[in-house]
Amino acid sequence: xxxxxxxxxxxxxxxxxxxxxxxxxxxxxxxxxxxxxxxxxxxxxxxxxxxxxxxxxxxxxxxxxxxxxxxxxxxxxxxxxxxxxxxxxxxxxxxxxxxxxxxxxxxxxxxxxxxxxxxxxxxxxxxxxxxxxxxxxxxxxxxxxxxxxxxxxxxxxxxxxxxxxxxxxxxxxxxxxxxxxxxxxxxxxxxxxxxxxxxxxxxxxxxxxxxxxxxxxxxxxxxxxxxxxxxxxxx
Length: 235
Ligand SMILES: C[S@@+](CC[C@H](N)C(=O)[O-])C[C@H]1O[C@@H](n2cnc3c(N)ncnc32)[C@H](O)[C@@H]1O
What we know:
- By secondary structure, the chain is of the alpha/beta class.
- The chain has 2 domains: 158 residues, 3-Layer(aba) Sandwich (Rossmann fold), CATH 3.40.50; 52 residues.
- 44% of the residues lie in helices and 21% in strands.
- It has 9 helices and 7 strands, in the order H-E-H-E-H-E-E-H-H-E-H-E-E-H-H-H.
- A 7-stranded mixed beta sheet has the order 3-2-1-4-5-7-6, sandwiched between helices.
- The N and C termini lie far apart (49 Å).
- The protein binds S-adenosylmethionine (SAM).
- The site of S-adenosylmethionine (SAM) has 17 residues, from strand 2, strand 4 and helix 4.
């Protein structure tokens, strides 16, 4: 039996945002590394590892057996939170999925907002859509952290029920400004992505995509201002 499970920076950052003592539901768990690590560390007493598919859930059970935490883990084969009862969880992690899937999972489980269950969300794509959805559906992003793995920088959000001030177009893309050490490279990556999208739209026939291009230019300008501010903090 193994006693030490080292998480990658992305999962470590998500694990750090889980409240100590919470009975955790890890939705889309796959190998269940995150809940297993938190159980081994003694940060949480119990976890439910849930996944939509058999294969990942089998991997989750293998991890639990390998690290000797099967007695403190439940396993659910279900879509999102559909197999989780509100009274059996104090915190939820949804990591490694697209932002739209995460929003759909939360939309299908209004009890999460009603009970103000702490959420740790780690979207892999569609971040502007997810931030916009959270704003419009009674959630507030309390904190965002960044994690780097090789060339990729990932966003991890701590979310609770509540209202947040409206986000500017640039904030929808990049989250609120912060002094995070990875913020500069993260903003640079987004600016490059927007520049490519804007260049692509510039090739479109006249008129087509013009509104979208202006929208993206506004976002890019906002990100450049954030980057300048962040650079100023580094001096
Ligand atoms: C890329 S893995 C992420 C695993 C782990 N959470 C992580 O961040 O490393 C995504 C997992 O989410 C599962 N998944 C996708 N949609 C789901 C849904 N609607 N409900 C539950 N699990 C889902 C997939 O089967 C897959 O195992």
